[in-house]
Design brief:
five-stranded antiparallel β-sheet, 5 strands, 2 domains, alpha+beta
């Protein structure tokens, strides 16, 4: 009878130790996880979303632009930096001319429309900045709300 009681007493002590150990491990896990989550949240690059082009400036060059080569030269005067890719199209709703897009890799960085009558429309891109982690948090919030 004494052996059985002694065994049960020892098991109670070990259960308490196991429960404390498991609680401590859960606390440590969540502390590390929350710190890692904050570090990831701070170091994630921003993803540009909801980008729209707005007229920044309208300039008169005073020249008659007759070819796409002249349009390209005129557009380069108003661009800062070097770009790896430049495309020219002939679509625009304001006047007849050339849309010159300056690109880095595949992203359009600057747009300038050069009209045949010499007017130059400079556009700028405005985007909402939203981080990758904010998208994930927003996704979880919408999933919980459903």
């Amino acid at each position: 009878m004494l052996m059985v009681i002694d065994y049960e007493e020892r098991m109670k002590k070990w259960r308490i130790i196991y429960i404390i150990f498991i609680a401590l491990m859960i606390f440590v896990f969540f502390t590390i996880f929350s710190n890692a989550f904050e570090i990831i949240k701070q170091n994630t690059p921003f993803i540009l979303e909801n980008c729209k082009w707005y007229e920044k400036e309208i300039i008169s060059s005073g020249l008659e632009i007759s070819s796409h080569k002249l349009a390209l030269e005129e557009a380069k005067k108003y661009v800062k930096g070097n770009y790896s890719n430049i495309s020219i199209t002939e679509e625009f709703e304001k006047c007849i001319g050339w849309l010159v897009e300056f690109k880095n890799n595949f992203t359009v960085v600057e747009k300038i429309f050069v009209c045949k009558n010499g007017w130059i429309y400079i556009y700028e891109k405005k985007c909402e900045k939203k981080s990758f982690m904010e998208d994930i948090i927003e996704l979880f919030k919408t999933k919980k709300g459903e």
